[in-house]
Amino acid sequence: MKHDLEVIGISCGVRNFRAAASSTRFYAGEPIHTAQTYSGGVIATNVWIVAANDTPLVATYMLAGIASRDAQVNSAGTVITQKAEVIVPLPWATRIRGKAETPASIDTDAELLLVLYDVTLIDYNSTGSALSGPLYTIKQTASTDAGGLTIIDGDVVKGTLDTIVDPRALRNDIS
Amino acid sequence: MKHDLQVIGLSCGVRPFRIAASATRFYAGEPIHTNATYSSGAITSNTWVVAAVDTPIVGTYMLGGIASRDAQVNSAGTVIAQKAEVIVPIPWLTRIRGEAQTPASIDTDAELLLVLYDVTLLSYSATGSSLSGPLYNIIQTATADSSGLTIIDGDIVKGTIDVIVDPRALRNDITA
User: Fold this and answer.
1) Is residue B1 helix, strand or coil?
2) Are B13 and A9 in contact (CB < 8 Å)?
3) With an 8 Å Cβ cutoff, are B91 and A115 in contact?
4) B7 - beta bridge partners?
């Protein structure tokens, strides 16, 4: 949902990422990524999409960043070919902040401590938002060592988590 | 020892790192790290410590950064549970500056040239400081390719070395 995720602190700034016509509509504060791979140095597809999975899983998804403005659409609400404006995180530096998937699980300092420095993902819930659309949160429960985000801080009152991005989550592994 | 290491230039700023009660006392300018590992994404320990070994070895230690202030202690001088303030380096960018382990080995430009772009570690000497406490400096003689710092510059007059941090030294390798 719009503004689910925030970019905190120094970043690479806003960069353009090509989005294809008729791709899924996205809004500011949603994660833009791709599952593309390389072959002979050539990427399989040159366009990016809003995440419709938990992301960024190292070696599976490449995270571009967080959309800084809504997708451009035509009068029918269909996404047009465009250069999406995306805030690109600086690996290990820029914080991505979002609500915890289950805020009640980090509403005490002792609970927050137990998840600090775990590696995790942005959670995607296709109908979880207040508008029954996508909801993006931060998983407070680690599930795989390939999670591309590291939890570095949180707010036990607001139920938010701050993460930083592993550089390997910004490009698929060299194969 | 206090102020052994300096952080130069742009960094991630100061971040809080949890320290357990009764951990080893540390001072501003000392390196904070952990040897924790991951299992199913969960880290084995959520607290960090001041380095008591040469660090950061990629795949073994994760460097938090350089403490920006002394540890908080109780009246007995014992470290209390706290959020340490640590300056976090931006990989490949932020410089960490410290005295060379053997300044005489880099006191000419020709000698400095020979160590540039070598990968190295922060050296830990348990009683090496002038106060007989820990001394941290930078090893000018490379020993292992897994070392997490790259020497990028130095001062042959002051005997200091500037290093930058490999991003792999900030997180243990993915094993699953």
Assistant:
1) coil
2) yes
3) no
4) B96
